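Entry 14. Ran structure prediction on the chain below.
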Amino acid sequence: MNDAEWAVVRDLLPVPGWLSGRGGRPEGYCHRQMIDAVRYLVDNGIKWRAMPADFPPWPRVYAFFARWRDTGLVTELHDRLREAVRAGEGRSAEPSAGVVDSQSVKADATVTFGSRGFDAGKKINGRKRHLLTDTLGLLLAVLVTPASVTDRGGARSLLAAAAGRFRRLARVWADGGYTGHLTDWTSQHLGLVLDIVRRSEDVRGSSRPFPAAGSSNGPLRGFCAAAAWSGTTNAAPTRAKPSSAGR
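Output, structure tokens:
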């Protein structure tokens, strides 16, 4: 990361125990080196064992990431960055509206059959990411399932987790793949309005229910996206427990 990004991130990171007088052995590598290594892996889609020699040894990098992931520090860092980006855009820390969508991706041959499935609509054998973002495109929650799980099925668990975490969340936009009983279910059980945005016959490309927002928070946005993606790409498949990552 460049110096501008590091200046933003540094104060959000936990202070190592040996630096704060809590004891413990000094770490062999600084946090900036470790975060750079994780960002490189996420950006290039490489395996842990393919970590270039310019970075610390991959077992050390993986242990660093796994410790932060398991203790919730990756999520906490992402949440703080997202809130800072939203503040820079003049928004409140918590979102009042969001967008739900999904993405099916092919699974590597090493992915077990129990955690993969076939998306008949997109003809993809692999996994599916169910995503909820705010209206700035910043990640609120993600659920990774076999690709065979329907958009509506994944959205039910995803929205239930998000509604319990983001108290201001009141409205969510979705495309035509989420039509059906889900709209009534979200209203009755979660108190959310699920708006279905239908694609016009004479419109090509992606349909957006709101205009794209410009941003002057380049370093914040870039690092926030990387932190979110690291949690998404390294998430274990599940059917019931989305990992949150918030308009």
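Residues 73-88 form the longest helix (16 residues). Will compare against last week's run tomorrow.
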